[in-house]
Amino acid sequence: MLEIKNLKTGYGKKLIIDDVSLHVDSGEIVALIGHNGAGKSTILKSIIGVLPKWSGEVVFEGTVLDSKPHKIVRQGISM
Predict the structure, then answer these.
(1) Positions of E strands within the chain
(2) Thinking of the domain 2-76, which architecture would CATH place it in?
(3) Domain extents in the chain
(4) Torsion angle of alpha carbons 28, 76, 72, 49, nearest 10°?
(5) Residue pLDDT, tens place only, 3-26
(6) d(CA 33, CA 67)
(7) C-alpha dist (Å) from residue 5 to 35, 36, 55, 59
């Protein structure tokens, strides 16, 4: 299970993702779709810890993740 609560992040001082929440059950397949520059890759980078989140919470399989890259999450997510 992956749960994102009120995620905010960006690059430099520019806010890109503002208050995104998402719940994905184990075994569920999800696609993020949107126009170029909509923030799809930015959301995924924040989930796996490549891009630090400004605020919000990412919970994977019951574990709250901080901003460091997490191998266990990267193994279950593909871009």
Answers:
(1) 2-11, 14-24, 55-60, 63-65
(2) 3-Layer(aba) Sandwich (3.40)
(3) 2-76
(4) -100
(5) 999 999 999 999 999 999 999 999
(6) 24
(7) 23, 24, 9, 8
